Amino acid sequence: MRVPMSCMRVPTSCMPVLTHLQAAVEEVLPALQQDGVRVFYLSAASPTPGVEALGPSMEEASDEPLPARHRADITPNSKAIYIFTSGTTGLPKAAVITEKKLMMVANMGRLCGLRASDVLYTALPLYHSAALLVGLGGCLEVGATCVLRAKFSASHFWDDCRRYNVTVIQYVGELMRYICNTPERPGERDHSVRMAIGNGMRAEVWRKFLQRFGPVTIREFYGATEGNAGFINYTGKIGAVGRANAFLKKFSAFELIRYNVERDEPVRNEQGFCIPVRRGEAGLLVIKITKKTPFHGYAGDPEKTKRKILRNVLEKGDAFFNSGDLLVMDHENFLYFQDRVGDTFRWKGENVATTEVEDMLAPVSFIQEINVYGVSVPGCEGRCGMAAVCLRAGMSFQGESFYAQAKESLPSYAVPLFVRIQEALEITGTFKQRKSNLIKEGFDPNVIKEPLFFLDETKKTYVPLSPAVYADILEMKLKL
């Protein structure tokens, strides 16, 4: 993926000083300088002593390719960049991206059908792999045009697409849901978007998007920044992240294995090997580590890398990358994302997949966003369900409607016992919902100042959770 400097040059006059990041840079600058790290502003001038302005150097740079000696020691396995994981299940980790992996991920756009004549639009942050490697990298790979938006705006999304003649959009699931939640307007199908490339779109949002905005080809994929393989749904099967076949299994041997949610570990048989799941059963996705599908791990802490490797999975001496994700394969070999292992919880002897519960409850009319998780209750095994809900503008929480939807669409063990109303849900930089802080805060009305509700089976609704009811739960006077 060699790109002439002339194609990447930004006129110095168009380079604003990033003043909104200046304070953050200056705060850590002494530590960076102590470690020998050079810092640059992508601007014509620098307001910070010790930080260089990159603009003048870019203007002076030659259009000719770099001399071969500058890349003489570069191999496919050389480290190209570090990309921090989004941190949905803990602190972000710096994943090692090699030159070969950078090229392979950048080629995903071509595999999905991205062409040189396309204009791709992304509002995702460039510090993550989706926008940097799949979006921008994909455009550089095929010679397409990339439109970058600094901050996503659902209300301006289609106006931007029309303004820049966008033909391909990049998404994560939450962005598509935001777009579908915007008020309907005339001429919503008046656009030139032919394809959407992304991951994490729920089946209901997928259907709604196509119904509202026209027959856009959806290329849903599955992958992790540090992962050693992934899937692409070429068929348009709604909800699927890909489809297994003999070629895929030969290139990247993967397996779905049984996982004990309570013990947070794979289930092993008498011989000590992992047990593959049956069709239709959720299992932990593991991908064999080979020369073709290597796992390069994380920078700085070997222990973090070791924890992502499962050994002796199917036979003695083998090694598999632990994705941390639960997937399901149906009878047609289609693969569906189920949940993160840290998000799935066990209640009344059953595994509860938070994404499934969210999918079933999201259609409630007054819900803008919903985030389901499990909380510990004294005297009870496992964790019971709780839902953090962001309401649509001008609407209020209606306990009867929420109860009716939950009872009609979910098994009894998956129905949330608690509801927390929030003005906004906490998300990562790539719009993934965070659950860890909500789990820690639990359902204590003495601590949480936002409205809390409790499932009242006798009244068939959700009632306000008072300190008195909370005390009864702690003292086990209320049966859950």
What secondary-structure arrangement, pairings included, does this model have?
Blueprint: H1 5-8, H2 19-34, E1 40-41, E2 52-53, H3 55-60, E3 79-84, E4 94-98, H4 99-106, H5 108-112, E5 119-122, H6 129-142, E6 145-148, H7 157-163, E7 168-172, H8 173-180, E8 195-199, H9 203-213, E9 217-222, E10 231-232, E11 242-243, H10 246-251, E12 254-257, E13 259-260, E14 265-266, E15 283-288, H11 302-307, E16 309-311, E17 319-329, E18 334-340, E19 345-347, E20 350-352, H12 354-361, E21 367-375, E22 384-391, H13 399-409, E23 418-421, H14 436-441, E24 452-456, E25 461-464, H15 467-474
Parallel strand pairs: 1-2, 5-6, 5-7, 7-8, 8-9, 22-23
Antiparallel strand pairs: 3-4, 9-10, 11-18, 12-15, 13-14, 15-17, 16-17, 17-18, 19-20, 21-22, 23-24, 24-25
Tell me, rounded to a whole number, the average pLDDT. Answer: 89
Largest sheet: 6 strands, mixed
Radius of gyration: 24 Å
Rough outline? globular
Number of strands: 25
How many separate domains make up the residues? Answer: 4
Q: Regarding CATH, which class of the largest domain?
A: Alpha Beta
Report how far apart the termini are: 58 Å
The CATH architecture of the largest domain comes to 3-Layer(aba) Sandwich
